[in-house]
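Curious: why these numbers?
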Amino acid sequence: MAGSKHFRVDGLRAVNDALGQLPKATGRNVLRRVAVARLEPIAEAMRENAPVHASDLRDSITVTTKRPRRHRKVSEVEAYAGPGQQPQAHLQEFGAPQHGPQPFARPAWDAEKENLLPGVGEDLWAEIDKAAARLARKTARLAAKGS
């Protein structure tokens, strides 16, 4: 979506240190799971706001961590909520000469943005704990097989 917003959460140094203790791929997966979970309410609000006659648009609204091809590769995790490859999405949102705007994304963002960041630290800690427990179980299984 044009005019996408980027957010940075500061003050999570201990979380970052804990993520650094995990394998790199596991840490990225932890970040992805939290980002998707946090963005899903916004995507759901977009689906609710999408015009009824535009079911293709409504059904295409997802949350993803896949970067569009046009974006450069970065080491951080990025997540997006919005319509997929629907060329009419911006026309519904902003209008066209044939019809007026039928905004669905901006009202969803406005309604849900305050709920996005509060609690993200707790979510990250919960996912880090789960990931660490999975790694410990895997290590124990491998050690039991090796002895």
